[in-house]
Amino acid sequence: MEPGMILKEYVLPCVYAFVACAGFCFVYNLRGKQLVFAPLGGAVGWLTYLLTAFLENETIQFFLAAMALAVYAEIMARVHKAPVTCYLLVALLPLVPGGGIYYTMEHCINGDTEAFLETGLHTLGLAGALAMGVVVVSSVARLGLVSRLTRFLRQGGHGS
After folding, report:
1. Alpha-carbon dihedral sign for residues 107, 108, 110, 115
2. pLDDT, tens digit, for every residue of 72-116?
3. For the chain, what are the domain ranges?
4. What is this structure's pTM?
5. Is residue 130 within 8 Å of 64, Cβ to Cβ?
């Protein structure tokens, strides 16, 4: 793959996700380091979504992207001693299936029941995949595995 194609298909969409998330940092009243690290989670999630395109299953892509950004949020929360939601809420924004919600309602208003149900179920599946990705990582984090990884990273990758 040529460099121009990589820039166009991977780097720029992640930059756009970062910028969009950065705007929401002000809505959520985030300050300091969180103005950089919270939107970076959105870029991480979007990059994961793009890199898993070979799976050709959007629901699995959303699930894996949610898991990646949830791991990122858990680690950043521990490193910066901040709530996980500071990083998670902002980072999830690029993945929210807003277009699907819009088109579902459009089909409903137009009386196209078949398209309404199809689009609605697909959108519900994507939202469920996001929720499940976060729940899986959160559950593992509560078992203490993420905090052990964070301690390992703080020590510079050297075990104690």
Report:
1. positive
2. 999 999 899 999 999 999 999 999 999 999 999 999 999 999 999
3. 3-154
4. 0.85
5. no
